[in-house]
TrEMBL record:
GO terms for biological process: ribosomal large subunit assembly; translation. One of its GO terms (molecular function) is structural constituent of ribosome. It holds the Pfam family Ribosomal_L20. Binds directly to 23S ribosomal RNA and is necessary for the in vitro assembly process of the 50S ribosomal subunit. It is not involved in the protein synthesizing functions of that subunit. The keyword Ribonucleoprotein applies. The gene is rplT. Belongs to the bacterial ribosomal protein bL20 family. It comes from the Bacteria. GO terms for cellular component: ribonucleoprotein complex; ribosome. Keywords: Ribonucleoprotein, Ribosomal protein, RNA-binding, rRNA-binding. This is Large ribosomal subunit protein bL20.
Length: 116
């Protein structure tokens, strides 16, 4: 009986790992061991940064809303505006508010006038 060797499977595994690291620099794109390490680290960063992206967008929306408020009234700050929205029971999210402030300033101004 002949012994079985894993040459085909090893090559397939190596090829798949290196395919995942296409575009990486130095040994991480050519050496299996370094490529595996790079994939693990990339996965960790991808997981963490998917969560960070949500915070980044929220910060961006806040800045856009504040910029829209500055155009209308410099005394009316972001925090006062959000507080006024809650008191007036206007449930519109920050993403929509920032889009209005950027693309439709007259509609945004009407909302601001309603809560002032």
């Amino acid at each position: 009986m002949a012994r079985s060797k894993g040459g085909v499977n090893s090559l397939k595994r190596r090829k798949n790992i290196l395919a995942m690291t296409k575009g990486y620099r130095f040994g991480r794109s050519t050496k299996k061991k370094q490529a595996r390490e790079a994939i693990f680290h990339a996965g960790k960063y991808a997981f963490a940064h998917r969560r960070d992206k949500k915070n980044d967008y929220r910060k961006l929306w806040n800045v856009r809303i504040n910029a829209g408020l500055d155009m209308i009234d410099e005394k009316f700050s972001y925090s006062k505006f959000i507080g006024a929205l809650k008191k007036a029971n206007i449930e519109i999210n920050r993403k929509m508010l920032s889009a209005l402030a950027e693309q439709s300033p007259e509609t945004f101004a009407r909302i601001v006038a309603k809560v002032k």
